[in-house]
Amino acid sequence: MKALFCFLLIFLMVSDLYSQEGKQENILKIEKFGDESKVYQSPMETEKLPSKEESIKTERKVIIEKPKAEPIMKKIETRISESLALKKAWKLYEDGKFNEASERFKTLLNSSHRDIALSARLGFAYSLKNLNLHDEAFENFEYLYSKDYKQEEVVKNMVEILLIKQKFSEAEKYAVKLNEEDKSRFLKIIGNEKLKKSFREIEGSRDKRVLLEFLEKIENYLNECLSPEVFFEIAKALKPFEEKEKARDVLEKLLSCKAALELRAGILYELSSLIGVDEMLITVEKEEKAHEEQDYLKKLTSLKLDLYRKKLASLEITSLEIEKIAEQILKIDPEDSSTKALLAWHYYNTRQYEKALSIFSQLNKKEPENEDYLVGIAYCYNALGKDDDLIHLVESSSIYSEKLALVKADAYIRRADKNLSERDYSKAFSTVNKLAKADDPISKQKAGEWYCKQGFPVLASHVDSLNDKACYFKEQFPHLEFEGSYRFKSGDKGFSRLKEFSVPLSFYYPLREGQKLSFRIIQRYVSSGSAGENPYMGTFYNYLNGQAQKNSPVYSKWLIQPEIGYEKEGYPHIDLSISTTPLNGTVSAMPLFNLNLDYRDFWINLHQSSVQESILSIQGQKDPYSNDKWGRVIKTGVQSGLNLNIPAPYWFSIYGEFNYLWGKNVWENYSLEGNLSFGRTFSIDETREFDMGIFYVIQHFRRNTNFFTFGHGGYFSPQIFHMVGPTFRYKIKECCGLSLDIKVSAGYIYYRTDSSPHYPKISGSDSYFNASALNDIRGNYEGESKSKIGGSIDVRFRKNINKNLSFFTYGKGNVSGGYNEWNAGLGLIYYFMP
């Protein structure tokens, strides 16, 4: 009975040992080498390996003492206890408790039972390996190899550790001992890791030659699809060196390899930067057909989306392909706002404004604060002429944008220009005044530019007062103007000829909102040239009556005239000046004034001004043969005109003038004048225009006083005057900084003058005069008729020199009356800017 009991115990012990080793099949461990992973379910069965003499001898010798003979029951109990301990150790290993497992395994390494000791060393080696104690793990695996224990499994682990330690030659030496399948797999892994290591040594090289030589050296591995990730990195490294063809060749060869899909996606993305979009799309479509893995297909879809977007970005905004490509993108991503926006801009730029407006409006509903969508809507309204909608959109938005402010300002300006074309000037200026009162600088700038274009630089400068880049900026500051001019008027030797040199000095003081005061002192030198001894002028009949010359006539004189002015730019444009005839003239000074009201298409002028045709008419004259003075002719009158566009670019202009002419001891006179002209304006560009038309002028004076005997005024005064012919005008106006204005007229002239008495104003009785004197007194100047070709020219130029200084010049000529006149001047303007 006792013997039977012992037998049962031995049986149970042996079966428990085998069940303990069998339990190892539940062990789960994952070992990773490079990009390859291997899952082991249990230690491998023992296989016959090459002889131990060929193996590497372990450095750590474990001495197993031969157990002393013990009683059989004691051996059985020890074996059962060690088997249970081994089982617990493997359980700890399976639970991932490698530290605890290694300690348990370590206590069993010197077991007297070979199978328990070797199984414990195997578990101990695995635990050390999982604790990254690779050197110690390798020693234990090497010991097991020397004991011919589970050779295939042990060698695999040794190779794996050698790979981790990058001892590739030793790893190859052990790998060849494996079966063909594992040997092939491990040799490929080793080759792969060796290649990676070699690449890492040159990876940071900035030398293109090094990369190309390395690629040439390992190119055969590419054909074998070995280490595709290395070749992938090489291709990326070649791109900065402009070796795009080489990089492309490598990437395309990699696509023929069965690389991991993650890497394959990377290859495609890199390739997409090296080849054309259309070619790449074909490649992606082939990939989609060749694979079914959903994550990979998602990546391909994402790449395709990027390619379509890249294609879209490369197209001209007006390209007909945009609509097609946008449709493809929106199929993949229907909520792609950027593509919708680009499509909308495409429609806008191809003048499909309604389509563009529809898309921009949809986008704006989703993102009402997006500036680009608001700008798109505003631009569409602008293109469709919906200025009211545009202005409401911008002014109701809480977003400030320069683009929105600009397009709103343009809408206001367009409104104003439309009002101008309809001759509703009050509404035009009211519209721009609203714009001028806006808070944003762009609106003020646009209003300022419009005012300047209308000829109101002071108003422009006050509205756009902070824009120091504007050419009209300086007009808000006081400025001093100095001018010098020369005038020559033809005539007979003596008093009808005139030479004049004038030096006006003017000071302008801007007030606000286009108002300006001016103060002027005009110094002028006038000269007629000498008429010789006993000239035929004044009361020459006294000389004929035997009276000696009493006074010397004035042949030349320096004169001085003051003037004060006020101007208000805008609508209406008011210009008022008050001055006098020369303060130190021969005849006492008289007040002069000029009031001009300009309502754009209608203007009226009230004036009292000096006739500037001779010394007699300018400042008066002393009678050489008496103590009388006469002359200093003034004309007091009204002038009014109408300028119409009928319609633009054609224009029509008409004006009329009436003047009452009077002076000291001068025969009173009046004149009527009318002018009618018609033409067309040709706009060359924004700053240049050319006018061409025809004109007709008619003029009438009641009396002919174009003489220098007593009672005459000394000015051209025909009974009837006609002139008809073409007129031309060329203008350049770059804001207020540069202007050129050339006016030329020519035509056929006919005029007739009346006969006029020698002495319209007689002093004294006929009984006092002798026959010669009486004949002179009763004599008449004969009238005349004349036909000729005449004309006039007027050229004015102004340019800014720097921020403080501008200069201007002008020249005028007139050969269309009973005399010829030429005038030229040059001036400087200094602005008192800070």
Automatic annotation (TrEMBL):
<keyword id="KW-0732">Signal</keyword>
<keyword id="KW-0677">Repeat</keyword>
<protein>
    <submittedName>
        <fullName>Cellulose synthase operon protein C C-terminus</fullName>
    </submittedName>
</protein>
<dbReference type="Pfam" id="PF05420">
    <property type="entry name" value="BCSC_C"/>
</dbReference>
<dbReference type="InterPro" id="IPR011990">
    <property type="entry name" value="TPR-like_helical_dom_sf"/>
</dbReference>
<dbReference type="GO" id="GO:0030244">
    <property type="term" value="P:cellulose biosynthetic process"/>
</dbReference>
<keyword id="KW-0802">TPR repeat</keyword>
<feature type="domain" description="Cellulose synthase operon C C-terminal">
    <location>
        <begin position="496"/>
        <end position="832"/>
    </location>
</feature>
<dbReference type="GO" id="GO:0019867">
    <property type="term" value="C:outer membrane"/>
</dbReference>
<dbReference type="InterPro" id="IPR008410">
    <property type="entry name" value="BCSC_C"/>
</dbReference>
